[in-house]
Write a structure and sequence with these properties.
The chain has 12 helices and 10 strands. The protein is α/β, with parallel strands linked by helices. A hairpin with a 2-residue loop joins strand 4 and strand 5. The longest helix has 24 residues. InterPro entries: Beta_hexosaminidase_sua/sub, GH, Glyco_hydro_20_cat.
Length: 369
């Protein structure tokens, strides 16, 4: 057998050592480098797995949040499946791709809010209309905002006695099939909560209702040593901060920040300004991840802010600044078409999801180097 010259062996060792040092550096500076997107439909699976292997892995993404909702062939409640949904075998292909690339995968099902969109009622309330927090509000044929009902998205009633048996069966099944250590419950933009006409929730404190649902989901997950992730907007006072009713709360749910368990991870999204509310969550003892969407310059600023927070914070607060996560709010197919140049929206200019993701990961690359 031919022996490699010593200088070549030395070069190989140097390259290997440098790579390990770079990985250790980025893991220390930004422990979480996430990517959040809707789970692909079966026909998009091959392209999405290619994206995991060739893009997420090479760009040092180590966390993938998949918004699954009802895009899975649930066995516990098959009546809630989408008409076209991922099979268990297809999910395992996603899991294997992530495991190969050392990417942790977290599935999401929207809980509490986002039980409808525009004129469409989603599966849970469609199949179980008795769970609707506001059954008197009828879905319009043509949706417009603002509207007389204040309808953005429907919510389920968190106090309905039959709700959690069904919801938690879905959560447990999806966590099992994705082999996940955590679950993302969504819980953003909840406008309908504690409705006056609800026989169970009417007159109750909205912050207590919101916190109660967060803690109930958290406690269910804790039985199998899983952690809860949620979006952070309902925990921010939208009026006092001026952040507004979308990225903050106008219905007083923000006080729930002092009522929820401290091991809930907050995904803190700000898309129109790089607001530094990560500090607020860390000061409350909550783990926080900053989330950009489609503005590349903001993604760079937010990444630099996160680094500053981690570098300048006390040891007690530093541990709560976990890192960054790119969010994608189109379907997986639309994003992949945009990313690979199949369909390009020239009117969007530089402010696209694909460009934001590239800017974020380029900034991460600079840090690791």
């Amino acid at each position: 057998m031919t022996k490699l010259p010593l200088y070549i062996l030395g070069l190989v060792c140097l390259i290997f050592t440098t790579k390990i040092q770079a990985q250790s550096k980025i893991d220390t500076l930004l422990p979480v480098r996430g990517f959040c997107i809707a789970a692909p439909q079966p026909k998009q699976l091959d392209t999405f797995i290619r994206f995991i292997n060739e893009e997420l892995a090479t760009r040092q993404i180590n966390m993938l949040i998949l918004r699954v909702d009802f895009n899975y062939q649930f066995e516990s409640h098959p009546e809630l499946r989408d008409s076209i949904a991922l099979s268990k075998k297809e999910v395992k292909r996603l899991v294997q791709a992530c495991q190969k690339n050392k990417i942790k995968i977290i599935p999401q099902i929207n809980l509490l809010g986002h039980q409808s969109w525009a004129s469409t009622t989603y599966n849970l309330l469609k199949v179980y209309p008795e769970f609707d927090e506001t059954p008197a509000v009828k879905m319009p044929e043509k949706y417009v905002w603002p509207n007389a009902d204040g309808l953005y998205c429907k919510s389920y009633c968190p106090l309905h006695p039959d709700l959690h048996k069904i919801v938690f069966a879905l959560v447990d099944e999806i966590c099992n099939v994705f082999e996940s250590e955590a679950f993302h419950a969504g819980m953003d933009e909840v406008f309908y909560l504690g409705d006056d006409k609800c026989p169970r929730c009417g007159g109750r404190d909205k912050a207590e209702l919101f916190a109660g649902e967060v803690n109930q989901i958290r406690n269910f997950l804790a039985q199998k040593n899983r952690k809860l992730w949620i979006w952070g907007d309902r925990l921010i006072d939208g009026k006092t901060t001026g952040i507004g009713m979308w990225e903050g709360s106008y219905n007083n749910t923000y006080r729930a920040i002092d009522l929820i368990a401290k091991d809930v991870t907050i995904c803190d999204w700000h898309y129109e300004r790089p607001d530094q509310t990560a500090v607020y969550f860390a000061m409350k003892g909550l783990n926080v991840i900053t989330c950009p969407w489609r503005k590349p310059k903001f993604a760079v600023t937010q990444t630099q802010d996160m680094l500053k927070f981690r570098q300048s914070a006390t040891p007690e607060m530093k541990q709560h600044y976990l890192g960054m996560m790119q969010t994608i709010w189109s379907g997986a197919g639309s994003f992949l078409d945009e990313f690979y140049g199949v369909k390009v929206n020239k009117e969007a200019g530089e402010n696209t999801q694909a460009n934001c993701f590239k800017a974020l990961t380029e900034e991460i690359k600079k840090i690791s180097n």
